[in-house]
Each structure stands twice: as structure tokens, then as C-alpha cells.
């Protein structure tokens, strides 16, 4: 006996991909997420491919996963997909210490982030 099924959180024209524990601060990741928010999926993929940010490669993989979820799990048209939401959340923060002068220690924080990308199918305006 399994868990009872629950209603789908997204509408029928949406698909989502979540990446957890990306090794980058949420502030830096949000710069890349803002870059693709609201664009067509194909345009967003091209922008991420030629972006100079290190994390753009991981964001591109997440977007490709969301597109694949839309195509395979929800039978949506890939050419009509738009990145409707791309938001960033905090994950864990590793705390480290670095030796400083006079016997003191400096605190170093190594933040991680979560990324959620939602793609939506839109009808072309005729």
C-alpha cells in the first residue's frame, strides 16, 4: 500500500525541474536565473550556452531537464515553451575557518543554492 496520490501543484501546461545544492551563492545564481526568466526556451538555451558565468552550464542542464519533463511527462510542444519561472533559494552553508594574524581566526562561509525552473506552453498569437 503506497502513499495516496496528491493533486498536481502545477497546471496542465507547465513542467518543472529542480536542482538542489549547487555550489554557488544564491546572489550569483540569481543573476543567471534573471537572464533567462520570461524568454522562449530555445533563446534561453542559446543565452546560457554563450554565457561567461561558470554556473551557466548547470543552469542549462536544469533547463534542458525541464524541457525534457515537459515533452516526455506532460506531452507539451517543445517549440512553444517559455521559461515562466526561474527562482533561487538558499541551501546549506558550510562554515570554515582561516588562520589570521595574532592567533585569530577568520570565518569563511561556502554557500550552496537551490534552483527551480518552470516552463509553460504558450499558444502562438496568430
Descriptive labels:
3 helices, 29% helix, 3-stranded antiparallel β-sheet, Ribosomal Protein L22, Chain A, 126 residues, alpha+beta, 3 strands
Task: Give an account of the 3D structure.
- GO terms for molecular function: rRNA binding; structural constituent of ribosome.
- Pfam families: Ribosomal_L22 (PF00237).
- Strand 2 and strand 3 form a beta hairpin.
- This protein has one domain: Ribosomal Protein L22, Chain A, CATH 3.90.470.10.
- It is α+β, with helices and mostly antiparallel strands and about 130 residues long.
- The chain is built from 3 helices and 3 strands, in the order E-H-H-H-E-E.
- The chain has a 3-stranded antiparallel β-sheet with strand order 1-3-2.
Give a brief outline of the structure.
One of its GO terms (biological process) is translation. Helix content is 29%, strand content 36%. The longest helix has 17 residues.
Q: What order do the strands of the largest sheet run in, or round the barrel if closed?
A: 1-3-2
CATH homologous superfamily - what is it?
Ribosomal protein L22/L17
CATH T-level fold name: Ribosomal Protein L22, Chain A
Q: Percent of residues in helical segments?
A: 25-40%
Assess the beta-strand content as a share of residues: 35-45%
Q: Name the average pLDDT.
A: 95
Total domain count: 1
Q: Could you tell me the radius of gyration in angstroms?
A: 18 Å
Output the CATH class name: Alpha Beta
| SSE pattern | EHHHEE
GO biological process, one term: translation
Subunit structure: Part of the 50S ribosomal subunit.
Protein name: Large ribosomal subunit protein uL22
Family: Belongs to the universal ribosomal protein uL22 family.
Amino acid at each position: 500500500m503506497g502513499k495516496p496520490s496528491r493533486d498536481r501543484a502545477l497546471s496542465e501546461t507547465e513542467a518543472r525541474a529542480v536542482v538542489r545544492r549547487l555550489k554557488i551563492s544564491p546572489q550569483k545564481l540569481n543573476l543567471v536565473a534573471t537572464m533567462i526568466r520570461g524568454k522562449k526556451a530555445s533563446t534561453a538555451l542559446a543565452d546560457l550556452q554563450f554565457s561567461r558565468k561558470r554556473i551557466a552550464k548547470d543552469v542549462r542542464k536544469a533547463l534542458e531537464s525541464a524541457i525534457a519533463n515537459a515533452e516526455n511527462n506532460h506531452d507539451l510542444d517543445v517549440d512553444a515553451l517559455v521559461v515562466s519561472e526561474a527562482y533561487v533559494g538558499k541551501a546549506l552553508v558550510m562554515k570554515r575557518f582561516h588562520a589570521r594574524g595574532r592567533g585569530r581566526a577568520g570565518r569563511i562561509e561556502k554557500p550552496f543554492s537551490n534552483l527551480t525552473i518552470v516552463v509553460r506552453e504558450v499558444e502562438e498569437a496568430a
